[in-house]
Write a structure and sequence with these properties.
Length: 324
């Protein structure tokens, strides 16, 4: 390409007059969460907390500066996602993963943007410098580069640099469930008809780690408790991931191509601690009144709604008595 693309993490540029994606000067803004999504599920006036729980915003007030070009691109993407959404699981499963990455990435990056601003201003009040480690700069910078594929000629070659899984899901009508971890670049989304989980910068290794359970899921409509457990597995896998994903970015005239580097043969993941995992899972299952002590009982295997803890057979969703 003729010039280097904007990378806000290089010099930590998060300014209301610079487009969050292209870096162009602008006075326009767009919402972090799609307006149609907030209107359909009526959560615009609900609050979302920053990572340290000390600050919160109304979802509808979360906005990022954007150029007209960027807003137009995301508006067009929203139309595609909304049409797919109307067709439930079949519509979402038929989407190109790049579109799901871009749509999900908008929300995750928007929350990350607010985390960066919040931390910068918090440190400024203490007269301290706002800094990020080289590893985080690289990780977030790669994510931002890939998100620019919505406006720039960027292609993904071969294996995709993320783990995205879409599956049928049974919720009561009009219930909307989502979870995010902006710092670890993760997102889950569940409604009546389908759910998906996205790990946006893992080079697909977490999906590979969970391959066995994903194969068992095929052909089944998941119960929400199973969906929460699956996301907990992905989330905890990301937590113990000991492999820093690498990419090769090739400049081909006016195009960029991004290819996933071959992963090392060493183990990617640290020790799976059932005590820590059970605590995480209990946070997701608390709506059912299930505590960590219920999940991890003495002399018994951990509770699971995905697999029979003794036979490892997949649990038929229809046999789960919990509400949905």
């Amino acid at each position: 390409m003729s010039q280097e693309l904007f990378n806000p993490f290089k010099d930590l540029i998060f300014d209301e007059h610079f487009c969050f994606l292209s870096g162009a000067l602008t006075n326009e803004k767009m919402t972090v969460f799609p307006e149609w999504l907030m209107a359909h599920f009526k959560f615009g006036e609900e609050r979302v907390e920053m990572m340290d729980k000390a600050k919160s915003y109304h979802y509808q007030d979360l906005e990022v500066p954007c150029s007209p070009e960027v807003k137009q691109a995301f508006d067009a993407l929203d139309v595609k996602i909304q049409e797919a959404y109307k067709n439930g699981y079949e519509g979402m499963a038929a989407l190109d993963e790049v579109l799901i990455f871009q749509w999900t990435g908008r929300m995750v990056y928007g929350l990350l943007y607010y985390e960066m601003i919040y931390e910068r201003d918090r440190l400024l009040k203490k007269r301290k410098a706002f800094e990020l480690s080289p590893a985080l700069k690289e990780r977030f910078g790669n994510f931002h580069l890939m998100l620019q594929s919505i406006i720039e000629p960027i292609s993904f070659v071969g294996k995709k640099p993320w783990s995205i899984v879409v599956f049928p899901l049974k919720y009561s009508a009009d219930i909307f469930s989502y979870r995010d971890d902006a710092i670890n670049l993760m997102f889950s989304f569940g409604v009546n008809g389908f759910g998906f989980i996205a790990c946006l910068q893992d080079n697909g290794v977490i999906k590979e780690k969970q391959k066995e359970i994903l194969q068992k899921i095929e052909g089944h409509v998941l119960h929400p408790a199973q969906f929460e457990e699956l996301y907990a597995r992905f989330h905890y896998s990301d937590y113990i991931l000991q492999y820093a994903p690498k990419f090769t970015v090739t400049n081909q005239g006016h195009n960029l191509s991004i290819a996933v580097d071959a992963a090392p043969k060493d183990a990617f993941f640290g020790f799976w601690n059932e005590d820590i995992f059970s605590q995480l899972l209990s946070n997701y299952w608390q709506v059912y009144g299930i505590s960590k002590e219920d999940i991890l009982q003495p002399q018994r295997p951990p509770l699971s709604f995905l697999e029979n803890p003794y036979t490892k057979d997949f649990v038929d969703p229809e046999t789960i008595a919990l509400p949905f």
